Amino acid sequence: MGPSWQNSKCKRSFAAKITAVSVQVNEIPLFTGQIAKTDPTHNCRLYSFQTDRLALYSGENLVKTGLSLPNWRHLTKATVKSWQHGCTLRLWRNAFVSESGGKKILIVCLSCFCRAYIDLSKMISSSEYGSHSWELLVTVDHQHEEVQKEFLLRVTGDLHIGGVMLKLVEQIKISQDWSDYALWWEQKKCWLLKTHWTLDKCGVQADAKLFFTTQHKMLRLRLPNMKTVRLKVSFSSMVFKAVSDICKILNIRRSEELSLLKQSEDILKKKKKKDKNSKEPVTEDILNLCNSPVSSGLSGSPGFYSKTMTPVYDPISGTPASSTITWFSDSPLTEQNCSILAFSHPNCSPETLAEMYQPRTLADKAKLNAGWLDSSRSLMEQGILEDDQLLLRFKYYTFFDLNPKYDAVRINQIYEQARWAILIEEIDCTEEEMLIFAALQYHVSKLSLSSEAQDFTCESEVDEVEAALSNLEVTLEGGNASNILEDITDIPKLADNLRLVRPRKLSLKAIKPYWFVFKDTSVSYFKNKESAQGEPIEKLNLKGCEVVPDVNVAAKKFGIKLLIPVADGMNEVYLRCDNENQYARWMAACVLASKGKTMADSSYHPEVHKILSFLKMKNWTMSPQAVSDPESIDMKPECFISLRYTKKYKSKQLAARILEAHQNVSQMTLVEAKLRFIQAWQSLPEFGLSYYIVRFKGSKKDDVLGVSYNRLIRIDIATGDPITTWRFSNMKQWNVNWEIRQVAIEFDQNVSIAFTCLSADCKIIHEYIGGYIFLSTRSKDQNETLDEDLFHKLTGGQE
């Protein structure tokens, strides 16, 4: 029986017949007749668990537990001093007599002078229930309406969680499988999954509200292709593990690149307003995958792809299975149309595109990245409820080991995420680049509708064992050894005539020709070729710089914009090339130098080839034979172009220009077109940047921080211009002060920065940095098993 406080203003009922009352009064008379002022924020509580034990509280802080009072009859006065807060509680016996004649105990807090009484006649004897026991209220989440849902369990502090669950199941008169059930602590927002821990060790006391509920619950996920799937997900596992299980169901390899995103309240409000204004209600087609082995909480298959990437053989014929069977065997997608995830579908209407949320400023883009869930906590701990809708997105823009044979779903979802980022202008691109993206989208949509594109069995299946043996044979024979030795001893260099452009604030740009020499990661320029043996006019170190293409193929403009970090910001320099080949070589060299690599790196020549192929797509001419009348073609250009350009040109003009650009990509296969679209997306200057509004230490104004796979960029929030760049390769360490929510990073050459995040929790940026560093440790020699502990060490918070 709990105490009855005099002049109490509020009461709260707890389990086990305990009443905790908080008293906040301005003046209470003392026994000596004095008047004492009290602190209105100070509370005093007392819990009486049985006749010989008390738990005394001051506010929400435990003062003393297990206060032994062996014999109430002989108690006259007792004083308990708090060793934490200096609060003194004094107890008197027989200070007052109740109307029924029963004895009471008076308790007075000498800090706030609140007083309470314990009626001895209503105390429960300890011999009735045993020593140190108390009642715990547990609510059971089940679907049987005729069966009670709340149960009172008589427990002790040394009872383990598994014992509580066993007692509970014995009291529930329902015969069913309880293996997926666990205890959820509502007040603490945590799962009690360590069944060998005792209640005392978990901190569970009589006022705890526990729920006995299932760990796997239904969740709606909106995929990058804007399709919604409904499946069972573990609400008790960390989000990192839950995403891994989801990707096994959806046949997406490299689950570490994805995560779950909760849309911000502002975006949801704007969507609801548009839905109210629309005349017809929006009906969403949902793919139900709740019967999959992984989502049902059972131990599913280790994945629907081989970890060693060897072919899966048909058990009947003994021949290697086709790619389609490899992707979708034992998957819930087998029973339904697998093309929902692996193939692109007819594009949305222009009206639907116009109604979607489109970020206009950097602040709007920062809102898109504020809702990433914490990968080190479970869904339930982050307030996600059953049947909520989340977005499944590629969070980390490092797409490792894309294999068309095994990654049909993954490639399509990356393509769709890139496509929507272009259409709603999450990422900026030029008009020429937009037409290339539109032509590739048009080509993909045409092939996706044709029956030939969906027949994967027509692909030539190559025995990977033979391919591996061939590679091993070449390696053992020492093929290309002379080239390897040459790459080690001789560092290539570029030397050519280029034009240098330096922007000036108060005058026109100065364009002058110079003799440029590119070696290692630096560019030097001289007055002419003959003076190249002497000292250069200037030497530019490109390590850590920003490289931005400045190209217009139709106007024969091939420029490279360099933003080089200096002490007071970024030094802006333009290089102008004469033709495509010269531009491709210098652009590839600049891109590698910005990453700290030289032209001796094996990725130099593939980079040159990629740039040339992208320029070739941009270089098209009108051919009357190849392009028919746009009016006779069933194409809506508004489905492939962002709103900015649809407002600028008429529909007929856009259709004609898209068909012109389509000539250069019309011979591509479906997968090749998607991969080319992804490569073009990756070549954009803003690719892979996630924006956050931050306040740097010592600064009086807000800035935007762009987080990419290899660098951090400080951006002026008003103009959008980059201020400075820091590479992850130069980073020594980073840490988070969780009390003031500040991220501090230390780089080489005694460069240190610190900032607080204003648009999101600093844990998100901390996880981004640790996540990208974790992904950089992957290699093709490893199997597909991830070091989950390492991920949580790099990304987990120490709060």
Automatic annotation (TrEMBL):
<dbReference type="InterPro" id="IPR035963">
    <property type="entry name" value="FERM_2"/>
</dbReference>
<dbReference type="InterPro" id="IPR037837">
    <property type="entry name" value="PH_Kindlin/fermitin"/>
</dbReference>
<dbReference type="Pfam" id="PF18124">
    <property type="entry name" value="Kindlin_2_N"/>
</dbReference>
<comment type="similarity">
    <text>Belongs to the kindlin family.</text>
</comment>
<keyword id="KW-0966">Cell projection</keyword>
<dbReference type="GO" id="GO:0042995">
    <property type="term" value="C:cell projection"/>
</dbReference>
<dbReference type="InterPro" id="IPR019747">
    <property type="entry name" value="FERM_CS"/>
</dbReference>
<protein>
    <submittedName>
        <fullName>Fermitin family member 1</fullName>
    </submittedName>
</protein>
<dbReference type="GO" id="GO:0007229">
    <property type="term" value="P:integrin-mediated signaling pathway"/>
</dbReference>
<dbReference type="GO" id="GO:0005178">
    <property type="term" value="F:integrin binding"/>
</dbReference>
<dbReference type="InterPro" id="IPR019748">
    <property type="entry name" value="FERM_central"/>
</dbReference>
<keyword id="KW-0130">Cell adhesion</keyword>
<dbReference type="Pfam" id="PF00373">
    <property type="entry name" value="FERM_M"/>
</dbReference>
<dbReference type="InterPro" id="IPR037843">
    <property type="entry name" value="Kindlin/fermitin"/>
</dbReference>
<dbReference type="InterPro" id="IPR001849">
    <property type="entry name" value="PH_domain"/>
</dbReference>
<dbReference type="InterPro" id="IPR019749">
    <property type="entry name" value="Band_41_domain"/>
</dbReference>
<keyword id="KW-0965">Cell junction</keyword>
<dbReference type="InterPro" id="IPR040790">
    <property type="entry name" value="Kindlin_2_N"/>
</dbReference>
<dbReference type="GO" id="GO:0007160">
    <property type="term" value="P:cell-matrix adhesion"/>
</dbReference>
<feature type="domain" description="PH">
    <location>
        <begin position="499"/>
        <end position="595"/>
    </location>
</feature>
<dbReference type="InterPro" id="IPR011993">
    <property type="entry name" value="PH-like_dom_sf"/>
</dbReference>
<dbReference type="GO" id="GO:0005925">
    <property type="term" value="C:focal adhesion"/>
</dbReference>
